[in-house]
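Posting here for the record, re: dioxothiomolybdenum(VI) ion.
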Amino acid sequence: MNAYVGTPTSRVDGRAKVTGAAKYAGEFAADHLLHGFVVAATIPRGRIARLDTSEALKVKGVVDVLTHAHRPPLADKDDAWKDEVAPEKGSPFRPLYDDRIKFNGQPIALVVAEDWETAKFAATLVRVEYEQEAFATDLESERGKAAKVDQPHKPRGDAPAALTRAAVRLEADYVIPSEHHNPMELYATTAVWDGNGSITVYDKTQGVQNVQKFLCSVFGKKPDDIRVLSPYVGGAFGSGLRPQHQVVLATLGALALKRSVRVVLTRQQMYSLGYRPMTIEHVALGAKPDGTLDAVSHEAIAVTSRFEDFSRNDTGWAEQLYKSPNSRLSHKLVHLDVATPCDMRAPGAASGVCALECAMDELAVALKLDPIELRLKCYSDRDQSEDLPYTSKRLRECYARGAEAFGWGRRNPAPRSMRDGKELVGWGMATGVWEALQMPVAARIVLTANGHAEVSCAASDIGTGTYTIVAQVAADALGLPIDNISVRLADSTLPQAPVEGGSWMAASSAHAVLGAAEDIRQELARLAKAMPGSPLADPVNVTLVDGMIASNGAAVSIADVMRHSKVERIEKQKLNQFVEDKSYARNTHSAVFAEVKVDEELGVIRVTRVVSAVAAGRILNTKTGRSQIMGGVVWGIGMALHEETVMDHRFGRIMNANIAEYHIPVNADVHDIDVIFVDEPDERINRLGVKGLGEIGIVGVPAAIANAVYHATGKRIRRFPITLDKLID
Ligand code: MOS
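Prediction output follows.
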């Protein structure tokens, strides 16, 4: 039955991507296409006193300069600017709306010209005078203003009292800097003016229907007026969950000028979009001498903008991982004059679990326990926040399989005890955890008499492999070779899908496809039964396999059934339906092991080996799945050692808004990565037993590396990234 599901199937879109046939948002052509270039604010807070576009307008080829004072109408109610993942509390940012400046880099004008170079040049001629106001951008100096936000954490027991009496107590601040996503593809939109007032928008986004609804409400358009497509996405990692400035600006330009307009942000301008918020993670653990926990306290203090409360679950993860009778968790926000943060791969968990897993390592050292032994002593089989069992949780197997593959048994626990020539060697480990979510998604399948099926859905493939798993599930369910399946995604006119995020799209899209395929099968069974002299006169237990419809040992080809029935095509659309049993918790888990080699004199750190053992239900595609985890590990290396958005607080401006100075891992930073999928059957979570892999790969990696650095050097660095200056200090 499963010719493709569960196998290492190559990407069905791989050829299009490597040959350049795959088109990205900024590559779509249109007649008489205009190019917009963004003019960005250079102060963090205040108002525009004067905006002089006259010199820019004199440049040959410039068609117009749109500003808050010169533009088509925009919605004025906050609700109209809220997209499906906007923070509940706040007033979303509106490009070119009024004279207010809310963050440095905010778009304040769009120069539109016949070509990009002209627009870019003319943008330098736009003159702006500001009335600047007092501002603050530094989380650490403003920490005292942190205000608690509502999160669904209920305190259990009395953590402060338990911490006071704890035999062994560990308490520390871990500082995670703000980070930017830096996807390879620049943010881009080509808004094609169709001539009759409607617009086709090619946008870089993780959710075409989210963008379509957003644009309609912002511009007061009817659903048919705006169609959004995003067939390929060159990485997004959360930055494309919310509609970004460029899609508003390109659409605004097209409406203003009644021509097609493309806006591509520069790499520097992408730093004006959302980011992983800087957090100070304050963790306190109280343990008994035997290594069981008596208290967990975790408070996260995070940056947000003045105009929106963005917060994520940084602190809830200890409730999933470690048994403790007393627990207190809280999340606080500091409002600063910066852009609103946004989701970035495993939002909340990547930061919060980093702190928790470093703290657990420090506790293991204090208790003189092996880090895995400590985690097994504290292992929780239940989600303590709701006191629920899991649909499945094979984290113990992750520890065992990962440790074995890594060779953890050969570790000398003493820091600075292992060497390789001039280099100190450190081995560290940590746990990863993420949610296993599923969302309403619909899919349509059109089966034609030539034995070909087209599967379509509005979901995006953000590089995660959605095209491929959709094709795999359809091929298996329809009994067709995968080459006979074509997949259309990321067009707002296709069956419904939410943004692709939260690691929910694999399970969600797979079950939509499965449902539609089953309806096709039933229809084929009905047609087969009606054929004169049918070998399937009484079809029970009907299966589709190898192009045949089979029942009780009899079979007839799908093509014959359709031909005899004079049916050219069978079309079925289905919304997935998950019956979620609320008496179970749903998570994915991992155990991450890292080896670092540290040059003792120079402080240079190399992550020479990582083993990630992941339990995430059934893996639909072991090839793209492995790639997902490897990508997550590389992100974890970046988070541990490289990535940091640096702000000059005197100007409230990002100083390293480019990938020369914002460091991300390059090939030379990435060595051996071993991915192990722990077999985790799960009949409760959904029919296919799928949990999703998009985010679990990063969680735990930064802590495993930080713990390895401690083991190598005896230095505990709690301020990320761990750069060499901190080691030789
Ligand atoms: Mo993900 S951070 O939900 O794209």
